[in-house]
Amino acid sequence: MMTRLERGTTPGGATDIPVIELRDVHVVHKARTGSLFRPDRVHAVAGVDFQVSRGETVGIVGESGSGKSTLARVMVGLQRPTQGQVLFRGEALRHGSRDRRTLGRAVSVVFQDPATALNPRMVVREQLIDPLRVHGIGDERSRLARVRDLIQLVGLPLSALEVLPRQISGGQRQRVAIARALTLEPDVVVADEPTSALDVSVRAQVLNLLTDLKDELGLGLVFISHDISTVRYVSDRVAVMNGGLIVETGPTCEVLTNPTDPYTRTLLAATPSLL
Ligand SMILES: Nc1ncnc2c1ncn2[C@@H]1O[C@H](COP(=O)(O)OP(=O)(O)OP(=O)(O)O)[C@@H](O)[C@H]1O
């Protein structure tokens, strides 16, 4: 079973129980540079309800500083909310180490820059095997078989397993990061600006890879971007963030063709091709 990559869900359609549900989540950071004239706290997420199920792609769009990445960190268990609840498959998390481990296995993340997300001194094979070892999954033989399947699934040759991250291109590195995110057969992948650091010529390929994998594996995909046209291209539903709040949410084509919130209208107006 170790090399199994398909999951038994309805491709293209959300399943009923959300994998992750956030209820009135707040995150307050201590400001990096507090001063007399600047507040010493940042309310990065200010009361957000959000959910994602297997089989759907939910886009989160908003300008820099709107709280998207902080929200992503809450979803993958890297950031504990200051207030509010995170439910995993309907059960409230208590954010202990056991909960973090469960969440870490079921919800994975692809960051913007694969150069910093990957270990520069480890060959790709070891980076992909590592999560399987940490979670005590399979034996070395079955782990290697799974890693060989994964690298091909993301469109790279088997020889890519033996290289260091700096020996391959940015697009190929992001494919490795995506393979790594899939190692533990997650239910949901949170992709935080996954194409922003890439050369324009390979962005579409990486986007298509993510959406193909989501369909093939029946994953839930949370796609975070400041770029509304990219979000429109991949998402079934969209949430628009501004100042730590989701100001508007709904089916992507509805929200983007008939926005009701003034901020969404402003965002759209800044992307003339969508009007
Ligand atoms: N660890 C932190 N410590 C202090 N402030 C933080 C921290 N992380 C984020 N912030 C602040 O919280 C706010 C929201 O940041 P966040 O990174 O979540 O937004 P974002 O929409 O993802 O923006 P970007 O795309 O620029 O990362 C910003 O004002 C940011 O400066």
UniProtKB/TrEMBL annotation:
Keyword list, A-Z: ATP-binding, Nucleotide-binding, Transport
Domain ABC transporter: start-end pairs: 20-268
Keyword Nucleotide-binding: yes
InterPro entries per UniProt: AAA+_ATPase, ABC_transp_ATP-bind, ABC_transporter-like_ATP-bd, ABC_transporter-like_CS, P-loop_NTPase
GO molecular function: ATP binding
Pfam family for this entry, one: ABC_tran
Listed PROSITE patterns: ABC_TRANSPORTER_1 (PS00211), ABC_TRANSPORTER_2 (PS50893)
SUPFAM superfamilies found in the cross-reference section: P-loop containing nucleoside triphosphate hydrolases
Family assignment from sequence similarity: Belongs to the ABC transporter superfamily.
Full protein name: ATP-binding cassette domain-containing protein
